[in-house]
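Q: DUF559 domain-containing protein, please. Structure only.
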Amino acid sequence: MDAINILRGLGSVARTKELVGRGVSRRQVDRHLVRGEMLRLRTGVIALPDAPADFIAAVLSNGRVTCLSGAKFYDLWSLHSPTCLHLSCKHGHGTGFTNHRELTVPVHPGAPLVGLVDVLVHALRCLPPLEAAVMVECALRRGDTVRSFLLDRLPGDRNGPARAALDLVTCTAESPVEVVARILFLGTGFHVEAQARLEGVGRVDFLLEGFLVVEVDGAAYHSDRRALRRDLHRNNKTIAGGYLVLRYSYEDIMFYPDDVLREVRGVLSGRRVR
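A: Structure for DUF559 domain-containing protein:
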């Protein structure tokens, strides 16, 4: 019985009784503790030296990681790192974390995590709408769950804001910044087509008012010279097809949205942008 691998399968931190329940003897645990291969965090709680800090905090608080704190463990998109720890604890006491007590689906089978659906439900109830929409868009695009399943867990007036955040999700984005850009453009009242297909060009990130193409580029957009030439050719074909083109970086969309909208409005109105 490989105690190290069993503990790693539990998120690298667990109660001793969980290890014993999976066939690990207390003698094995003691041997690993003496060698420094395991650490005793307090009586009854054992961890590997590289155990995630969030998991450690969850087990010590008798809870499970959720909401924005759970995004990285489920490989969900997020815009920011959490400024505080988000846990789900059945008890109502404890400090230093945000507690999301209600659970609607089974918890993670090994690690101290709530189920993926509850990570999303808690995010929709807790986070600013844009941040929650980014996480949910990732999950729905991957097929981790479906919109109706989330809606069933958001009934009543108190969940109205959460449902409104879910309405921002269209599953048309291929990156978090595209979610932000789509919501930015839609908020102005523009007619927005996301992932629009243009004859002879292919798919573009956004088509505004039927003639303005807006592309959102990542930091490492051109991997080599060939990719650059291909993109220049595509850009020229778009313009030759009668469309106008604006391109923006991640930084433009995330940090200078007012400048982006000023330029877009200028082009759409026919005014010269100064």
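A: Brief note, in case it's useful. The longest strand covers residues 192-198.
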